[in-house]
Amino acid sequence: MLELYHHGSSACAAKVRFALAEKGLDWTGHYVDLLKGEQFDPAFLAINPKAVVPVLVHDGEIILESTVICEYLEEAFPETPRLYPESPLARTKVRLWTKAVDEELHPACSALTYVLSHRHAILRNGAGSFDDFLKGAGPDGRAARELKWRWIQEGLDAPGVADKIRLYDGYLHKMEAALEKSDWLAGGAFTMADVALAPYLNRLAMLQCHGMWRDGRLPCVEDWFARIRARATFEPAFFKWMPADLIENMRANGARSWPAVKDLLGI
Ligand SMILES: N[C@@H](CCC(=O)N[C@@H](CS)C(=O)NCC(=O)O)C(=O)O
Fold first, then answer.
1. Which of 7, 98, 233, 253 could bond to 117 as cystine, CB 3.0-4.6 Å?
2. How far apart are CA 173 and CA 100, in angstroms?
């Protein structure tokens, strides 16, 4: 049995749900509400001491890290549709994208999501004290939690945030360059590279930041995302798990923040 610990607004979890859907694999979900701090529940920390989703449990075995999970699914279920090419050289192209997502795009996405949207919800509910906010993070998670506190308090003015948004935009330009040469990010076929990037475009779309690629700015990215959204797996992987109030919060907060993002990027 496949069990997934996940959350509606987690890009990493959406990536795994998209991979599971593309592979036609059934799974059972355990919803960990990150905005309510459920990632710090002792029962979840026993599964992942890093207090992050997604986590896959396969027949009782715990598998961490979204990219590792997707690679595991590919190897453990070889009879399902392949998301990595056969040739080792072609695989390197896919892995360069998944590595970039893990190392650069995902941290940029966390900052962007917090400053454009989640901070408003957290401030509205009362962020509590700094010490309360750090509770449960554990020694390993302290620095990340401290940074998050600054995102919540200072928004776009928090240290490093503007650079992270520029880096995010830089990845859209890298995608455009790749998609000018081929239909999909790593060549002529849909692969794990497309699965891995899709949640990050969807995040921008949900936050009403489509202007980063629309209106002729990045036409190949626009076309790619339309083809991603048209896949039968997109809706169930991305929206089935999103609570309506979270969708609406992200839409409204994102729309409010878009003018500042537009200015920052000189669009
Ligand atoms: N490298 C990890 C990153 C996981 C991660 O950052 N997950 C986020 C959601 S996308 C999370 O659970 N954050 C917890 C929090 O916001 O406190 C992976 O790829 O699985």
1. 253
2. 14
- pLDDT band for 26, please (50, 70, 90 cuts): very high
Helix 192-206 with 66-76: angle, nearest 10 deg: 140
When mean pLDDT is compared across 14-28, 147-161, 163-177, the lowest value belongs to 147-161
* Ligand 1, atom 16, residue with closest C-alpha: 34
C-alpha 105 to ligand 1 mean position (Å): 12
- 52 Cα nearest atom in ligand 1: 12
Helix (H) or strand (E) holding 29: strand 28-31
**Domains located in the chain, CATH noted:** 2-76 (3.40.30.10), 88-265 (1.20.1050.10)
Please give the full DSSP string across 208-221, using - where no structure is assigned: T-GGGTTTTTSHHH
pLDDT at 127: 64
The closest residue, in CA terms, to atom 11 on ligand 1 is: 52
For residue 147, report the distance from its CA to the centre of ligand 1, in Å: 14
Query: Distance between alpha carbon 218 and the CA centroid of its chain, in Å?
Result: 21
